[in-house]
Amino acid sequence: MARPAQYPLELRRRAVRMVAEVRPDYDTEWAAMKAVAQKLGIGTTETLRKWVRQDQIDVGVRPGVTTEESAELKRLKKENAELKRANEILKAAASFFAAELDRPHTRS
What we know:
Layout: H1 9-22, H2 29-40, H3 45-58, H4 67-102
């Protein structure tokens, strides 16, 4: 089971927007992120940096796997695992029934 997100989605979006808005006021992007992280009570600046990078990927500014693609990949992997389990069950059942058919039957 996935752990719940520590920060609400709206806070993440707001933080990313704030970094873009205040970036010109700071010498580096990291300094802007650090200031926003402290202002919003985000545990580490690195957390905010990841949100900003993922947002850049999602809007197409930076190459990488989008949030939507990542969710689809996760869903497909889960579905694949379920299908593999079902296939193993079907193989075991087929083997069991084949053995029953091969067994000589005695008539009473």
